[in-house]
Amino acid sequence: MDFNVKKLASDAGVFFTRAVQYTEEKLGQAEKTELDAHLENLIARADCTKNWTDKIFRQTEVLLQPNPSYSSWTSPVINDFDQTGARIEEFFYEKLDRKIPSRITNAELLGQYMQDAAKDFGPGTPYGSTLITVGDYQKRLGGAEREFLQTSAINFLTPLRNFLEGDWKTISKERRLLENRRLDLDVCKARLKKAKLAEAKAALWSEEVDKAEHELRVAQTEFDRQAEVTRLLLEGISSTHVNHLRCLHEFVEAQAAYYTQCHKHMQDLQKELSSANGDTFPNAFAVNASTSGVSTGPSPLSSATLPGASSPSRPPNPSNALEPSTLKIEEVKPPATGTRKAKVLYDYDAADTSELSLLADELITVYTVPGMDPDWLIGERGNQKGKVPVTYLELLS
User: Fold this and answer.
1) Pick from 190, 224, 200, 196: which is nearest to 210 by CA?
2) Strand, helix or coil for residue 366
3) What value does the mean pLDDT of the chain take?
4) Which run of H or E residues covers position 365?
5) Residue pair 234/39 in contact by the 8 Å Cβ criterion
6) Which of 132, 206, 288, 293 is the most exposed place for a label (fewest CB within 10 A)?
């Protein structure tokens, strides 16, 4: 009992002297031992690593923990609350050493809603059957998303978390201990300075000087030892960067594979819808041609407008692309209304004199004429005129 009381009193005394030393340093009334430049640089680098790792970790967590219960316009406060709940759920599963159940993704939920709606609308109707098809592909997209989320959480998110909750806590603990050793050292320096001043006035104080010098040597030894421990830990930040670099590469690979898979699913869906609904919904250009005389251009999801996609294959060029066949390209006149500007997506070399060669990113004027093949338009650039393929264009409003 007495030992515990004495220890508490001693700890309180040490805490008090450290607090006094720290306060006097802030007020400029006490000297402070500065760390060497190398150690200061290591500390600054470690703080920078921690701050940015924390930000990247939190934003990655937001990306990899979508909320299927709320749409994108839901209050951010609700979404933050749900993400916090997801983290708490993960914590309990981790403590119980149990596998976290897979959460349904937004795309999977949408696909299920579409297929349920198709049952009520009638799976045999055009709308119902299309809902079933689109719903199936939404589920495939959701499955690809879930695989991406799981892979990224393991290969990227977990290493960042381990650093923040493991290595960084150890570094922070040793840095706090180093700061305490530094305060103790400066307290001993101040005591020795006072003892020497008193010794100059009276020889009886020589014993106090010896005691202060001994305490200073002990404090200096403890400070140096703790500085070395802290330095070794901080130098390990370089290994952390190497590890996080490898994890970042794995995250990018997983993301690239996910988007490639999504691209393929959407291309397959477009082909299936085009095949199934071709008779019900003819080429969009042909529909618009009967009303405004011009196409709305390629679908926003067509391969011609996706980043990194190669130029589309050359559309068929039947001999009757312009009817009647006796009509010459130079005799074609633009309609009074219905002409539009179009941006060229890819270079195109004319196959014959009836076509117009194109350069990527240039702007041309386009329009259609009655009876023209829906895969082609008439393009004009200054005094030049000729047929151009629709799939090579992005029609501007």
Assistant:
1) 196
2) strand
3) 79
4) strand 363-367
5) yes
6) 206
The encoded tokens of residue 124 equal: 């045999």
Burial grade of 283 (CB within 10 A; 0-12, 13-18, 19 or more): middle
At 213, the pLDDT band (50, 70, 90 cuts) reads confident
Amino acid at 180: N
Show the tokens assigned to 297: 């251009």
Distance CA 368, CA 321 (A): 11
Contact assessment for residue 365 and residue 345, using Cβ atoms and an 8 Å cutoff: no
Q: Which of 223, 216, 215 is nearest to 182 (CA)?
A: 223
Stretch among 94-103, 120-129, 222-231 having the lowest mean pLDDT = 94-103
Q: What are phi and psi of 344, to 5 degrees?
A: -80, 125
Predicted confidence at residue 358, as pLDDT, reads 94
Largest CA-CA distance found in the chain, in angstroms, rounded: 126
- The model's pTM is 0.58
CB atoms inside a 10 Å sphere around CB 390: 24
User: Contact 321/370 with Cβ under 8 angstroms?
Assistant: no
Q: Six-digit token pair at 148? A: 């991406």
Q: Residue 30, exposed/middle/buried by CB under 10 A (0-12, 13-18, 19+)?
A: middle
Structure tokens at 64: 């990899």
- How large is the average pLDDT for residues 51-55? 96
Distance CA 307, CA 259 (A): 11
* Angle formed at CA 177 by CA 173 and CA 182, multiple of 5 degrees: 145
Q: Output the DSSP codes for 127-190.
A: HHHHHHHHHHHHHHHHHHHHHHHHHHIIIIIHHHHHIIIIIHHHHHHHHHHHHHHHHHHHHHHH
Phi, psi of 358 (to 5 degrees): -125, 150
Question: For residues 56 and 159, is the Cβ–Cβ distance under 8 A?
Answer: no
pLDDT at residue 172 greater than cutoff 50 = yes
Cis link prior to 282 (omega < 30° from 0)?
A: no
Alpha-carbon torsion angle 148, 149, 151, 157, nearest 10: 140
Q: What is the CA radius of gyration of the chain?
A: 37
Tokens of 42: 């290591």
